[in-house]
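A sample follows:
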Amino acid sequence: MKVLANDGISKSGILALEKGGFEVITTKVAQEQVANFVNENNVDVVLVRSATKVRKDIIDACPGLKIIGRGGVGMDNIDVDYAKSKGIHVINTPASSSESVAELVFGHLFSGVRFLHDSNRNMPLEGDSNFDGLKKAYANGVELRGKTLGIVGIGRIGQATAKMALGLGMKVIAADSFIPSVDIKVEFFDGQSITTTIVSQSLESLFKEADFITLHVPAQDGYIVGEKEFAIMKDGVGIVNCARGGVIDEVALVKALDSGKVAFAGLDVFESEPKPEMAILMHTKISLTPHIGAATGEAQDRIGTELASQIITLLS
């Protein structure tokens, strides 16, 4: 049987699939050519990340397709219910990238509170001519320890983020419509651990209470954070989105950054991805990454082997 990993797959995933008797094709096929390629090459399984979309047109055009797999959590680029109605298995890897995304959240938080994103832009330009000026400009950093982190969405990635925050000595609060409370176990290198319970609260109270806010929710029909939400947040709040573009109103975000209501933002995802707005890309108070939350070697290894295991189980 043949597997098309159109957005790539780790070497460990390829080896696991080949060991299971599958042929793995890693050719990058253009979106408009996916259906033709699947049919011409008798592909049984299509694996994607966030770039390739598997919509109704591809599903209808490929009657031999048995599995659609998403390397990651969100499946908004796949018509999941329609695929299932056609007897196609739809799989993903919800647990594999949690730690990688959580670490990126803290990369943006550390960058924001210590101005690293802006300092790294200006030191090459002015470090030799305006060292003291830059030193003064970036001298008002703050510590994360002792501050309150508000986590919107306390699923797997939200929980991984909570563990890291607790390890740093932060207070953690959460808002989640589907998870009323969750036990967070923080494990240490020597086998010891501590467990604490986080009880979900209202979004409004989280926005009012948090010093920093991080979003871990699926794609939405509307904004979770817009002008009204920014208005009730603390002055000088920091906000990070490593979830999905479109959950923050970027026009309202720029306004809040310009007014000082929001001290900084960290964005890994964007409303107009893959062509983010220039007002976002050029803003000195935004730490930027190009949708790389799950893009670590460790996460990709876990994703590849987990997808392989599910495929082998379903088709063997």
Summary: The radius of gyration is 21 Å.
